[in-house]
Amino acid sequence: MNRRDFALGLGTGSLASVLAGSAHAQGEPVEGREYTRLQQPVPVSPAAAGKVEVVEFFGYWCPHCNAFEPSLDAWARKLPADVVFRRIPVAFNGPHEPYQKLFYALEAMGQLDAVHRKVFAAVHVQHLRLDKDSDLQSFSSANGLDYAKLTDTMKSFSVATKCSQAKQLTNAWKIDGVPAMGVQGRFMTSVGLAGGHEQALRVMDALILKAKKA
Questions:
Q1: Quick check: pTM over 0.90?
Q2: Looking at the domain 3-213, which fold is it?
Q3: R_g over Cα of the chain
Q4: Which H or E run contains 37?
Q5: According to the model, what pLDDT value does residue 26 have?
Q6: Which contacts qualify for 160-168: CB closer than 8 Å, 24 or more apart?
């Protein structure tokens, strides 16, 4: 699916392929079905040196990312010390950019862990438009955030740099839908490819082991 469809394998007509894929995810994942291998590996971040890096490409605006987040978060919290997990917010177009900036601004302010899930709830439960100043101000007030500091940080050079790096990684991984997950700069899977939330996490476990053996 192309970038406007937002989610790998989860658009119109994809249900049959999702159900079919779930049968394969119970055992060793099959390359080309439950996951793909990058022809050109992507370098891992310096923070992951000597470890296995796992990245999630997501968007706060994406309903499928919102649905996957509880399972993914619980899984990520149980990862061993030799696995580094990080999220990459994706902006496929202009309206997505404020959400990408919001992620990096919250990270810079030290508020990401406390507020990350609340952003999803604000967008998908409360139906706030956090690309609008009035809704972002309401969200900030409700969550004890300094609205002026938040908006200033979103406009900062450091956040712009992070967004540029995120765009480069999105292109390097050839991400055309979210949520998508990458392992050690070489392997990629998604909820759609794997056949469901839990299946995707099982494929990720297998890919982490594959990366460790390599």
A1: no
A2: Glutaredoxin (3.40.30)
A3: 17
A4: strand 36-37
A5: 54
A6: 162/104, 162/107, 163/91, 163/97, 163/100, 163/101, 163/104, 166/88, 166/89, 166/90, 166/91, 166/100, 166/104, 167/91
